[in-house]
Amino acid sequence: MALLAFVTAGCAGCNTGPTPRMIGDKAMDFTVRDSDRTVSLHDYRGKLVILNFWATWCVPCVEEMPSLVRLQKEMGPKVTVLAVSIDEDEAAYHRFLRQYNVDLLTVRDPAQKASEVYGTTGWPETFIIDSSGTIRRKFAGPANWTSPEIVDYLNKLQPVPEWDTKR
User: Fold this and answer.
1) Which domains does the chain have, with CATH numbers?
2) Closest C-alpha to 51, from 138, 132, 112
3) pLDDT of 162 higher than 60
């Protein structure tokens, strides 16, 4: 009986709802500098951001990357895909970008400072951040980013131009 009371009391603070931690929260800012560029999340305020944490040695990440590249091409300026690599090996990272024609915004963060801010526990892990800087969804594991469901969801997150709000 005492054990049941202890377990019940211990879980009183557990999050039992269906919403993952951070959904609805403001996205935490970070700055990552590698040999190619410096990227700060706050530079993309006002834009829809797909923040993806990945690595070249992660098989699901490798499988997912082509759909992220296609999404960026298909949605163009409506979305910014920011792919943060946790690779320690700079040469492997650059080789991967060339080999797979990764044509989207990438930055290498071998110290994993940005992924630490977001509490990532595996790769790939992706956050959808709306134009107001709010985290709307989190994907743990690979996704097909050009699926009709995801593209429709992203299109619905697009801000309505001011002239359209007067209808």
Assistant:
1) 23-158 (3.40.30.10)
2) 138
3) no
